[in-house]
UniProtKB/TrEMBL annotation:
HAMAP family: HutI (MF_00372). Its main location: cytoplasm. GO terms for molecular function: imidazolonepropionase activity; iron ion binding; zinc ion binding. It is found in: Cytoplasm. It comes from Flexibacter flexilis DSM 6793. This is Imidazolonepropionase. The keyword Acyltransferase does not apply. Zn(2+) binds at H85, H87, H255, D329. 4-imidazolone-5-propanoate binds at R94, Y157, H190, E258, S334. Catalyzes the hydrolytic cleavage of the carbon-nitrogen bond in imidazolone-5-propanoate to yield N-formimidoyl-L-glutamate. It is the third step in the universal histidine degradation pathway. Belongs to the metallo-dependent hydrolases superfamily. HutI family. The keyword GTP-binding does not apply. Its EC number is 3.5.2.7.
Length: 428
């Protein structure tokens, strides 16, 4: 079994056994200076202060194992980011809508003109599964370059039975063919297709009676999601779909309160959603509801940035005692980027989160939003060895500070104990 020893680490982040961080505890990032990290096979075998390394090595029979040493002098080592909200299976970009936004059209206005999700649906329906797979594989590698080791991927650009299942089959191939930990979500209730404009109940029936059962029968989905917001799906429709998903074993996730106070947070919590995501429109009532739940509030600051809409009130949420996660929302219409490092910068600059809070939100809380906190998100013996090593930097605060560096900030990425990025090149 292979061994990787990372030694002389300037600062090791999240060096602790933790399942999530909430409220004031999000200010602690579990930093350990002058440290080592030992990886055996796919798992974290040991970690600690450099002074304790000889004792740790003495426990191993190095004569029977190949040891790879990495000198991390001046570098920060962190668990990989867990990106718990993406839409990276899509066909084609939407830069024409980008120009429309610059001219002053809103997200809702673009959607009413046949743009937005319906635009992506037309393109996806015309694409083959192989074309979608190759494009999505490139995006996964891009995201790994930014330090992401776990990804949730949603459907929702198919809007027909065949095309929603096509998207989910692409996600299944990504799960099978990459070392990234991937969760899949059926988001058939992403928008109302043009052909169902006057037949909402028929489309919801299609989701409930055909899409959900077939996705489950093929083992294609982990979660069921609904876009519960102004101009999309109502609270009542959302409840119907989530209840149907639950009957087939699909746990709920929710797009909520991006465009208005939609009731999405409340219906998500009522159905024990693993996470409620977006939350730009969140007030005292929504925070109180979340405080009484185990649902992870997940914020998508790059979406608010790109759409030029108000940012979610992260400061109020955290100060109230809530945990929050952050994710990229990588998609062609409202967040065309998988750069989690930029998301961290936005979280600090516009959500008023401290660097430690942002890093917790992208690591252990992101893992919690994917139900992966027992295996990912922190440095703990026995957890999967998904970690990244920065280039030499002055402190871990430099990670969100240096938004212009992007993937150049990260020198090495290790997924499941295997080096998949070194000196800027991602390969698997």
């Amino acid at each position: 079994m292979s061994l990787i020893l990372i030694k002389n680490i300037k600062t090791l982040l999240q060096a602790r056994d933790i399942s999530y961080a909430a409220g004031q505890k999000m200010r602690d990032i579990g930093a350990l200076d002058d440290a080592f990290l030992l990886i055996e096979g796919e798992k974290i075998a040991d970690f600690g202060a450099m002074a304790d390394l000889p004792q740790a090595l003495a426990k191993l029979n190095l004569t029977e194992k190949a040891l790879t040493e990495i000198d991390a002098t001046g570098r920060v080592v962190s668990p990989c980011f867990a990106d718990s909200h993406t839409h990276i299976v899509y066909a084609g970009s939407r830069e024409n809508e980008f120009v429309d936004k610059i001219k002053g059209l809103s997200y809702e206005e673009i959607a009413k003109r046949g743009g937005g999700i319906l635009n992506s649906a037309k393109r996806l329906q015309a694409a083959t599964e192989d074309e979608l797979y190759q494009a999505a594989l490139g995006r996964v590698k891009e995201m790994v370059g930014y330090g992401i080791g776990a990804i949730e991927i949603k459907s929702g650009y198919g809007l027909t039975v065949a095309d929603e299942l096509k998207m989910l089959r692409v996600v299944k191939r990504l799960k099978q063919n990459t070392p990234v930990t991937i969760k899949s979500t059926l988001l058939a209730a992403h928008a109302l297709p043009e052909s169902y404009r006057n037949r909402r109940e028929d489309f919801i029936s299609l989701i409930i009676n055909e899409m959900i059962p077939q996705a489950v029968a093929e083992g294609l989905a982990d979660y069921c999601d609904v876009f519960c917001d102004k101009g999309f799906f109502t609270v009542e429709e959302t409840a119907q779909i989530l209840e149907a998903g639950a009957r087939y074993g699909l746990k709920p996730k929710i797009h909520a309160n991006e465009l208005d106070f939609s009731g999405g947070i409340q219906v998500g919590v009522a159905h024990k959603a693993i996470s409620v995501d977006h939350l730009e429109c969140t007030g005292d009532e929504e925070i109180e509801v979340l405080m009484e739940s185990h649902t992870m509030p997940t914020l998508l600051p790059s979406t608010a940035f790109f759409l030029r809409i108000p940012y979610p009130p992260a400061r109020q949420m955290i100060d109230s005692g809530l945990p929050v996660a952050v994710a990229t929302d990588y998609n062609p219409g409202s967040s065309p980027s998988g750069n989690m490092l930029f998301v961290l910068s936005l979280a600090c600059l516009y959500l008023k989160m401290l660097p430690e809070e942002a890093l917790n939100a992208a690591t252990i809380n992101g893992a919690r939003a994917l139900e992966l906190e027992s295996s990912l998100g922190s440095i703990s013996k026995g957890k999967i060895a998904n970690i990244f090593i920065t280039n030499p930097i002055s402190s871990y605060t430099f990670i969100p500070y240096s938004f212009g560096q992007g993937g150049q900030l990260i020198d090495t990425v290790i997924l499941r104990g295997q080096i998949v990025k070194k000196s800027g090149v991602v390969s698997f």
